[in-house]
Amino acid sequence: MIEEEYKYKRELGEGKWDKILKRKLVELSVADNYDEAKHEWIATGECWWSGLSEMPEWVTTHPRKCLCSHNIVYHFEILNTENGIRECVGSDHINSYLILRAIAEDTGLDIDSISEDMIEKWINVRVESMKKTAWWHTNGDAFTTMFDHVKDLDMRVNVRKVGKYYNHEYKQYFDNTKIRKSSKGTYGAPTYKMASIVWRWNSPENPKRQILTRGYPTEKLMNDLTLFYAMFEMHQTLTENEDKKLAERLLEVQKEKDDLISRRQRYMEIERNKMIASNIEENQNDSEFEDKCNYYGIRMFSELDGINDWERKFLSSIKDWIMSGKEPTEAQRQSLVKILNRDNGDVQMATEKQCSYLRNLGYEGDFASLSKHDASAAISTLLEERRKGYE
Q1: Is the distance from CB of 177 to CB of 156 less than 8 angstroms?
Q2: 378 pLDDT more than 90
Q3: pLDDT per residue over 253-263, tens digit each?
Q4: Which residue has the higher pLDDT, 293 or 204?
């Protein structure tokens, strides 16, 4: 069972560099043979990338070299637990015995129960961390500069249209947009629709944002950022033109509001002037009518002095007759005096027939002081109200 398990775990072979490493490990160990010496060594978990400026002490004896003398990029520290010697090897020579002890001590598992997948994961975690450090060391300044420069414009340009909405401030319809989460088309082509750079890198609304899942951007994101950065001025010009049109639209809307207010003010001014002119004309007419009434020896009157439609029409026609400069005929004068004299001298009280009729119509006034003239007016009013109620 143990033999089968160890078949898929790493072991140094008989190649050139493997043989050199075996020899040097034995030379640095307490044991005098590799099969025993290999169990003295353990991977510490410390890693260093050759592109970093600060070199740890355990690398200084073999800068950019594995213990086997082979050129390497990623350096892994190993420790001899018997004599305390520290050395470094490349990712190709972190063999299973070095890692098995590290995993066993970290997890408390028996060495024989540690799988190849666990060894791979141990290496990948450290290599990935090293890659992240290396990437930021090489590209970090350029990425940060470009990203900070384009991030606001990215949220404006790299969007998709999803219907329209009406904006009351601008009084027009606009495209409703949402962040584009996936790219479409051929990279660099005029029709290429780029996914939002901010969305992919560090948007709080994206649970898979690369700043958390990887710690450094993918090659695709970096390529898109470089392309967008190169086209920044073109995108900025387009958005500035859009903003200019929006500003002009706001001015148009404000002008429309101002024009409407101005028209309303002019209309109100015209109506006020008409009312003033009408009042002046009415006062002038009243004064002229009063002079003419005095000339003909009758008191000033209006159609309101009539108690029925015939009298009101008669009084209105006589007023027009007099104002046109014509003298009332004798018959007109007698009818006019008869109507107007009701208000002078003895007041004729309402007849019993009028009072009875008013009761049937629902009149609730004081019958004792009701004149014949007022009774007639009340009957006309109540009949008109009843007629309107039937309509």
Answers
A1: no
A2: no
A3: 999 999 989 88
A4: 204
Nearest to 47 by CA among 75, 87, 79: 75
Give dist(CA 339, CA 22) in Å, integer.
142
The answer to whether residue 237 scores a pLDDT higher than 80 is yes
Q: How many residues does the chain have?
A: 391
CA quadruple 136, 142, 147, 149: dihedral positive or negative? positive
Sheet of strand 74-80, all strands in order from the earlier edge strand to the far edge? 41-49, 74-80, 86-89
Neighbours of 201 (CB within 10 A): 23
* Angle (nearest 5°) at CA 112 between 109 and 116: 90
- Spell out the residues 6+ positions from residue 286 whose beta carbon is closer than 8 angstroms to its own: 300
Name every residue whose Cβ is closer than 8 Å to that of residue 389 and which is 6 or more positions away in sequence: none
365 exposure class (CB count in 10 Å sphere: 0-12, 13-18, 19+): exposed
User: Please, are residues 173 and 166 in contact by the beta-carbon 8 Å criterion?
Assistant: yes
Q: Is the per-residue pLDDT at 8 higher than 50?
A: no
What the block records as the tokens of 330 is: 């004798």
Strand-strand pairing, 172-179 and 74-80: unpaired
Tokens 């086209």 correspond to what residue? 231
For residues 374 and 307, give the distance between their C-alpha atoms in angstroms, rounded to a whole number.
Answer: 8
Nearest to 211 by CA among 152, 147, 123: 147
Q: How many CB atoms lie within 10 A of CB 18?
A: 16
Cα 280 to Cα 188: distance, rounded to the nearest angstrom: 80
Q: What distance, in Å, lies between the first and last C-alpha atoms of the chain?
A: 108
The DSSP code for 29 is S
The residues, any chain, with a CB within 8 Å of residue 205's CB and separated by 6 or more, are: 199
**Integer Cα distance of 82 and 358 in angstroms:** 130
Largest CA distance in the chain: 159
Question: Torsions phi, psi of 161, nearest 5?
Answer: -90, 135
Q: What integer best gives the mean pLDDT of the chain?
A: 83
**pLDDT tens profile 129-177:** 767 877 887 788 999 999 999 999 999 999 999 999 999 999 999 999 9
Q: Cα–chain-centroid distance for residue 23?
A: 68
What is the SS3 assignment for 167? Answer: strand
Could you give phi then psi for residue 178, rounded to 5 degrees?
A: -135, 155
Cβ neighbours around 227 below 10 Å, total: 15
Does the pLDDT value for residue 42 go beyond 80? Answer: yes
